[in-house]
Amino acid sequence: MKIGILTILNVNNYGAELQCCALYRKLCKMGYDVEVVNFLFGINSGHDFKGERLTVPISFKQSIKVRLLPIVQDLFCLFYQKNKKLRNKRFDEFHDRYNRLTKTVYSSVRSLYDANFDYDVICIGSDQVWNYEKGYSLEPFLACFDKKGTKKVSYASSIGLSVISREAEEVFKKWLSGFSWLSVREQQAAKLLGDLLHRDVDVVLDPTLLLDSQEWLEVAKFDMCPKEKYLLVYIVTIKPCDYVLKLARHIARQRNLKIVRICRDAYPEHSGNDIQEILTAGPSDFVGLFARAEYVVTNSFHGTVFSVNFSKPFYSVIKSQHSTNSRLTSILQKLGLENRIVPVGSLLPQISDIDYNRPEEKLKNERQHSLEYIRNAFSN
To answer: Do residues 151 and 32 lie in contact, with contact meaning Cβ atoms separated by under 8 Å?
Structure first.
């Protein structure tokens, strides 16, 4: 069975590239013939917007925000082009080594319509592929380009929103009704789509949790890991999150650990002289840094996931007690680790380690459920 994965990649984001790699590698290990459609997502500088229209309209304010984000990122990196090139090179090498991408690069939505794919199954992968607020066309991730009646399956796809517009409801009704199997990664999204489509929508693990720690060590690099014992910080928000650094310093003092921070791009975050910033890590370096860390503090979903995968003591910082980051809270609740969530501004927690016996057993069960979904979806 030949499977083509369509997901968000080519955006030089650790979570996006690693979730794509994880789904590809797991499907290959299960015996499927798999390749990833080498589509340049909208944020990629090589994406061609000619003739492209939004699938779901968004506000003018959100549209401006979407267009400004890559420009801001480029401005931040303006004086760090050497770092940027090295970081990009490591992302490219990662894909060359650990992913099988189509030889053809699809730089526009239009080019997908012109393609002549011969897949038995089109698999719409994980990440926020159905989040229309990102301001890019959803057509690739709804498989609108398919004119052959190819079987369509989603795996751990995400809307990333708790409420959707009436226009979005109509779009999802029209296109997702044609999917043979639907799965998402948040309970909230499963209920939303289940009610909308009047069908079962499964909840499965993010692909990065399909691979266990030993499988992730197969792609890890350790060149950037300090010789000293260290606490790892990973912050994904552009706005500074001083609380994360405050918590990290609090733990590092108690545990006598060096603090290392993976920066979200190739420019310095100016964390302070006591924190070593890593600006040029590729995905393999990212995995290695988590694997060797003694402790982790993060506000990232995938930072949390890799902490769990490597059984690391960690804290996940969210914006507030009522944060809508459902994917993070959802997985930690499933694993019985919701006490590792710390809202910004709260009293610093009493530092503790984690007994992973029960969470690992729960993760094993969730992994089995997700693999069973894959076997059923691709065989029936």
So the answer is: no
DSSP-based three-state secondary structure for 203: strand
Q: Would you state the structure tokens that stand for residue 375, as one six-digit string?
A: 């076997």
- Spell out the residues 6+ positions from residue 348 whose beta carbon is closer than 8 angstroms to its own: 246, 247, 250
Maximum Cα–Cα distance across the chain: 61
State how far the alpha carbon of 46 is from the alpha carbons of 105, 138, 247, in Å: 10, 18, 39
Asked whether residue 327 carries a pLDDT value surpassing 90, the answer given is no
Which residues have CB under 8 Å from 203's CB, separation 6+?
Answer: 183, 184, 185, 186, 187, 190, 330
pTM above 0.90, yes or no: yes
Most confident stretch, 124-133, 256-265, 320-329: 256-265
**Contact residues for 298 (Cβ-Cβ < 8 A; gap 6+):** 232, 233, 234, 235, 244, 304, 307, 314, 315, 316, 317
| Position 380 confidence tier, pLDDT thresholds 50, 70, 90 | low
> Tokens 């070593």 label which residue?
276
Q: How far lies 336's CA from each of 117, 291, 324, 357, 359, in Å?
A: 42, 22, 19, 11, 6
